[in-house]
Amino acid sequence: MHDPRLDKLADVLTSHSTKLKSGEKVLIDIFDATDEMAISLIQATRARGAIPFVQMHHARVSREIALGAEKAQLTIASSVELARMKKMDAYIAVRGSHNITEMSDVPDEKMRLISGAMRPVMDWRINKTKWVVLRWPTPAMAQQAQMSTPAFEDFYFKVCTLDYSRMAPGMAALKALMDSTDKVQLKGPGTDLHFSIKGIGSVTCGGDRNIPDGEVFSCPVKKSVEGFVTFNVPSIYQGQAFDGVRLEFSAGKIVNASSNNTSALNRILDSDEGARYIGEFALGFNPHILHPMRDILFDEKIAGSFHFTPGQAYKTAGNGNTSRIHWDMVCIQRPDCGGGEVWFDGKLIRKDGLFVPTALKKLNPDYLLGKAK
Predict the structure, then answer these.
(1) What is the DSSP string of 296-341?
(2) What angle in degrees, to the nearest 10, is found between the helix axes of 4-11 and 149-160?
(3) What is the DSSP track for 230-294?
(4) CA distance 230 to 228
(5) For 276-283, what is the mean pLDDT?
(6) Is 373 exposed, middle or buried (0-12, 13-18, 19+ CB in 10 A)?
(7) pLDDT in tens, 38-77
(8) For the whole model, what pTM was predicted?
(9) How many CB atoms lie within 10 A of CB 123?
(10) How far, in Å, are 10, 286, 337, 344 from residue 162 at the CA level?
(11) How much is the pLDDT for 106?
(12) Measured between alpha carbons, how far is 81 from 38 in angstroms, rounded to an integer?
């Protein structure tokens, strides 16, 4: 029996997120998701007069390729993928995972080789196409969220089909404030971080790049970051699990890094020169997402959180930092997670996960869920 929730989600992705127009070409990239979702996206694309192209991936197959990846092979693969991406106007990726640690035994040097070779494809996709990326609900994700599979599916579709237009007024106010801000201070348990975002600008994210969504991001001036930060959200990166990540900065550079897996953490941060500098700073506010589940597309949008990202900066609202990595690390500042504060130019902007200025209160959960005006 066909699930109508698939059609509703496909409509959000093709209308709100990528705003497909007649004649536009879109690459639908399916990673361990269902044929039914791919078909719904094809149908929704055609309904808007656009032209669908589809690629299917399977993590176990990708792992096997990665284990034996060679430079010459990746050079060909990258050139082919880049040539195709240059023909596309839009990109929709549905990324499922039956095992989030499937790539955990791929050697670090192979992962660096792959990420470096495919970086031009990603850069073109991010900077030259309309794009949206989302996860796909699987029993593995339900387990990560510590929920039953049916309960997680209900949560997933509720979050992914949220009325993102309700975020627009608050996001516009936050963007205006961030665009005019110089000094930022983040305070909380194990965190006292100072940096500048002067002249960087900011970008609102209300369902037009990621689903689920709900953040406004900017970026520190590259060498302005000073202090230390402790992240209370667990992370998976390059197939490895990290908890309790703590970073210490001097002149913008990570000079000390520790976690439950300190050696692996530092190997990743030594991937290249840019990996020890920050490429993104963002505030998250999706009212439905409250608890971490080791999936960054969900965790970075947690209500009352911020994320701070070693590695590659975006060209828009970026500081010019380049790297093979882009690792969003998340800290929740709600009282149930220890609390915390965000200050802009000496003014308190968010306390214990709730925005304080009147114009920004439209990003607090009560407003976004329709409980307050």
Answers:
(1) HHHHTTBTTEEEEEEBPPPSTT------S-B--EEEE-SGGGT--E
(2) 30
(3) E--S-EEETTEEE-S-EEEEETTEEEEEESTTHHHHHHHHTSSGGGGSEEEEEEE-BTT--S--S
(4) 7
(5) 98
(6) exposed
(7) 999 999 999 999 999 999 999 999 999 999 999 999 999 9
(8) 0.81
(9) 16
(10) 13, 9, 25, 29
(11) 93
(12) 20
Write down all domains in the chain, each with its CATH number in brackets.
Answer: 4-160 (3.40.1830.10), 166-368 (no CATH)
If 0-12 CB within 10 Å is exposed, 13-18 middle and 19+ buried, where does residue 22 land? exposed
Residues facing residue 29 across a β-bridge: 55, 93
Compute the half-sphere exposure of residue 196: CA atoms within 13 Å on the CB side of its CA: 9
Q: Would you mind telling me the total number of residues written for the chain in this entry?
A: 373
Beta-carbon neighbour count of residue 93 at 10 Å? 21
Sole residue written with tokens 């699990």: 241
Q: What is the pLDDT of residues 89-134, one digit of tens each?
A: 999 999 998 888 899 899 989 999 999 999 999 999 999 999 999 9
